[in-house]
Amino acid sequence: STSFNMARRTYAQENEYIDQVGPVTYRIRRGFVPNMRVEGRVYVNDAIKELLFDELGQFSSSAGAGGFLPALKQIANVASLPGIVGASMGMPDIHSGYGFSIGNVAAFDMDNPEAIVSPGGVGFDINCGVRLLRTNLMEKDILPIKEELAQSLFDHIPVGVGSQGVIPTSAKDLEAALEMGIDWSLREGYAWAEDKEHCEEYGRMLNADPSKVSQRAKKRGLPQLGTLGAGNHYLEVQVVDEILDKAAASKMGVDRKGQICVMIHSGSRGLGHQVATDALVLMEKAMAEQHIELNDRQLACARISSPEGQAYLAGMAAAANFAWVNRQSMTFLARQAFAKAFNSTPDDLDMHVIYDVSHNIAKVEDHLVNGKMKKLLVHRKGATRAFAPHHPLIPVDYQFTGQPVLIGGTMGTCSYVLTGTERGMEETFGSTCHGAGRALSRNKSRHNLSYQDVLNSLKDKGISIRVASPKLVMEEAPESYKDVTQVVDTCHEAGISKKCIKLRPIAVIKG
Q1: Is 4 a residue whose pLDDT tops 90?
Q2: Residue 434 is among the residues annotated as catalytic for this protein
Q3: How high is the mean pLDDT of the chain?
Q4: Are the C-beta atoms of residues 503 and 241 closer than 8 Å to each other?
Q5: Which of 8, 15, 164, 209 is an S-S bond match for 314, by CB 3.0 to 4.6 Å?
């Protein structure tokens, strides 16, 4: 529950603080919660805004303080954190989470000694993200062997809650992977040199320090290197359904409808979760010493420059490197499975990485704030970096198109590739949505749906599915999520990213 117990306002009173300022843009004015330093801003279109406002309505009418605060309250609470600049922003896939909503973007001024870093602004699955591979195969090539291919991928890639990796790793390998990220994969022969070029941060955060990752986190991470994990993580074989921006798509090597791609959505498994938990414990202690007062204790944080702040950033970077190695190992295994199925080589199948993005991370970036270039620590939790054309941090081949942004749909629905825009740089520190965003809590989903129904509906759509833990399938059923198309349309309409490719799945591998 919150540490300030205000008398609850009515829904109508709460709404007085929220204005619609554009077709899909809402502003949360100061006063909505105490101590706001900047305004809040949320991007939602009419199709998905009900969920957000209903949640606030339920909160206003209920006396109890069970579960998380509504996302609108969480966005406003983040706006009260020391050192925040611009606005506390909610992407259209926003839903409430630990401290920060999932879908919240918040940037803090590195030159302000008061500015903070908060593990809740990154999330427990550090560098959960998405990678997309292209191939030169067409849907007609896959259909005759779709079931065998799905089985082969399932056999190659370790999945599930406690799954262990097939790529042998010792404690020494893990230390190196935490420090080196994809450079480790490259050294060990699991990556192509060009894979690295097409990763955010080139697949390696240089400030990583494995000594800032606890033994417990390492113990959880060691058996899980190169594994998919459960929950909303998946590997999908996808078909290009629509090309919405021909020029940008052709730069990505996608030039025809029916072309086959492979999407991998995964994170840092138990290791990242432990890094976040460890940091929260340390920061709760440090806050008392640093006299940081918060609206919500889940927003536990530390000054960026403090020992706790620096230790978390170094541990977070190591967990991020672990996640990139993870996606790289699965890329290697997926390439093997395809090569075997088509009696070819990954190279001959043109299985190149289009891009790899992170959607749970905090990064030091330069942005314009009120006309001045500033160094900011940008927290993106359930939000994706979306840099505009000509940005120095995006690969050479995407300089004219803008950074590819990969939006993973929910199991069995469509996914999208977007590109970053100049307007996004100005408005959202180069950030956009990350996926569908939950509409039902995991528990609610389990009660409402039977897993056989979910599996049957995928079969009816012609989607092959292999699941390690079928009981978890209901939590990830499309019914549990917002419609990813509405989320993407909102970002496109707001101009913070631009639609490029729409993909639909024909095979899903899940934990």
Answers
A1: no
A2: yes
A3: 92
A4: yes
A5: 209
